[in-house]
Amino acid sequence: MATSWSVEAEQKFDAEASTPLPRLDAIDGVSRAGEPDTYNLEAVYFDTRHLALAARGITLRRRTGGPDAGWHLKLPHSAGRRTEIQAPLGTADIVPVELMDRILAYTRGHAVAAIATLNTERTSYSLYGKDGHRMADFVDDRVRARSMLGEPRDMTWREWEVELAPDGTDDGDDTLLRTLTQQLSQAGAKPSERTSKLATALGDAWPTSEQTEREAPSDSGPAVTPVLLYLEEQVAEMLLQDSHVRLARDDSVHQMRSQIRRIRAVLHGYSELFAQAAVKDLERELKSLAKTLGRYRDVEVLHERLKVSLDQLPGKLVLGQLGDELEERMTLRARNAMSAVKNRLNTPRYFTLLDNLESFLSHPPLTSEASAPAKKATARLVNKAGKRLRKRHDAAVGAAVGPQRDTAFHEVRKAAKKLRFAAAAVEAIHGKPAVKLEDAAHRIQSILGDHQDSVMAQTELLKLGSAPGVSNGAFTYGVLHAMESTAAEATLDEYLRKGKKARKLRLKK
Questions:
Q1: What single-letter DSSP state applies at residue 369?
Q2: How far is CA 112 from CA 52, 69, 169, in A?
Q3: What is the pLDDT of residues 248-302, one digit of tens each?
Q4: By C-alpha distance, which of 118, 138, 137 is closest to 65?
Q5: β-strands 32-33, 113-128: how paired?
Q6: Given 23, 62, 75, 145, which is the most exposed site by the fewest CB atoms within 10 A?
Q7: With 0-12 CB in 10 A as exposed, 13-18 as middle and 19+ as buried, what is 171?
């Protein structure tokens, strides 16, 4: 089933039934208004019994009538803008899989059902600029609504709406939207306090937003402020990646696991600002989830690495049907790992983790350290992460060659990752020095990530080369193992050359 999406920018107005339409071509910037188009629309809105979608600014509806009949899913994009995703009409009471997969991280196992039906008599006018291009649409809606929450109730109202044309939703058109808002208000309408027709229909049942308003970070403000803002961004991105994983988007598992690691790293690095028990519970569950995702991601990386290495070997060194054997083996492992990922994303345990993350952010369990001046407190904690990196470096350099040293350098990589994200969380406070430290730690992470990939490839090649029935293919696996061993040593040499800068950087208090 095909879907399409766009970013919409709009403003709604409350208008009295008797309010005359303004002269649309008299609005600043509008050259002419098109002839009116009239439609009779019916929209059935869906949500959970507890309005989990509405609480997050998400709208799911099935609309009939008009040029955009079909299923519509609207997700928050930025202030005054939402991403709208559409799917064909399909069946009246069955949400298309493509849309349902995008909201499972928000509905969390709870069923969705019709909560309201809105019938709208719409008159629409296209507004054109001096160069003849369509700038926006003005609609005059007369609405009859029935809410199915609790005792059914009916209501009617009139509203106007201005929506910028799909190709006019960049930041430069905010001025146009402000102008339209001002002049339509002068014509007798007023900007609606409700964000949608559904909000008006539900009235007092409409849930309060789950978004928490936070003060802007400052050097002398609470240390916890930039940390919470960063965590909120990462959790929101994690929920977005959830839908991408369910829809099998390329690289989505990697992206979701990366978001989980960012959240874990910041919780760990700034744990002094929060009650320890709450942080440890979240870290434990996030680690377990990342491990499930990691099984698929590791197979994905390993498969690509071994495939490229095998393709680069001269033909005379490739004995047996190793390419086909490798493809079959890795495809099966990837399929099993992805099945485990999708199963995990539908468990009560996963949905409880999402609930706990949001609860942590809306009601953070703060310690007295959370209110300390941000610049000094966050610099101390970032520098503490830097000290941890240096200690792990010293331990790795002194480790005996072999598995023990490989493990030690993997620990260096994990410490670099924690330092990177600890610095990223406080860029608003420390500016360029934090960015510089983040970039340097990222370089270490990338170099030692290549080393870890090589170590994993060596382990896999040993298994392949010693498997029953491998026959003369063992020779080829041996050649690849030697290549990976050389590559691993090269990455360590690169790390020793380039990692010194990151180990010296500090943030000033």
A1: G
A2: 9, 20, 31
A3: 888 999 999 999 999 999 999 999 999 999 999 999 999 999 999 999 999 999 9
A4: 118
A5: antiparallel
A6: 23
A7: exposed
Give per-residue pLDDT as tens, 191-215. 877 768 898 899 888 887 655 667 8
Query: What tokens appear for 386 in the block?
Result: 């830097």
Number of H helices, E strands in the chain: 14, 10
| Pairing mode of beta strands 81-87, 134-147 | unpaired
Amino acid type, 211: Q
Residue type, 446: S
Note the pLDDT of residue 210: 58
Angle (CA) 341-347-350 rounded to 5° is 80
Nearest to 389 by CA among 223, 506, 225, 260: 506
Give the whole-angstrom CA distance, residue 299 versus residue 292.
Answer: 12
Rounded-to-5 percentages of helix, strand, coil across the chain: 55, 20, 25
DSSP 3-state of 155: strand
Q: Are 116 and 148 in contact (CB under 8 A)?
A: yes
Q: Residue 419 in contact with residue 441, Cβ under 8 Å?
A: yes
Look at residues 476, 430, 173, 108 and name the one whose alpha carbon lies nearest to residue 320.
476
The residue type found at 113 is: A
The length of the chain is: 509
Contact criterion met (CB below 8 Å) for 389 and 269: no
Contact 261, 290 (CB under 8 A): yes
What whole-number distance in Å separates Cα of residue 354 and Cα of residue 282?
10
**Gap between the Cα atoms of 389 and 377, Å rounded:** 19
- Confidence band, pLDDT 50/70/90 cuts, at residue 171: very low
For 428-434, the CB contacts below 8 A with 24+ separation are: 428/217, 428/226, 428/229, 429/217, 429/218, 429/219, 429/226, 429/374, 429/375, 429/378, 430/375, 430/378, 430/379, 430/382, 430/507, 430/508, 433/505, 433/507, 433/508, 434/382, 434/507
| Of the listed ranges 51-55, 212-216, 247-251, 354-358, the one predicted with least confidence | 212-216
State the virtual CA torsion across 393, 395, 397, 399 in degrees, nearest 10. Answer: -150
List helix spans (H) across 270-402: 276-312, 322-344, 348-362, 374-397
Q: How far apart are CA 171 and CA 355, in angstroms?
A: 34
Angle of helix 432-465 relative to helix 276-312, nearest 10 degrees, comes to 60
pTM of the model: 0.83
- Torsion, CA 342, CA 343, CA 349, CA 355, rounded to 10: 30
What the block records as the tokens of 211 is 């978004």
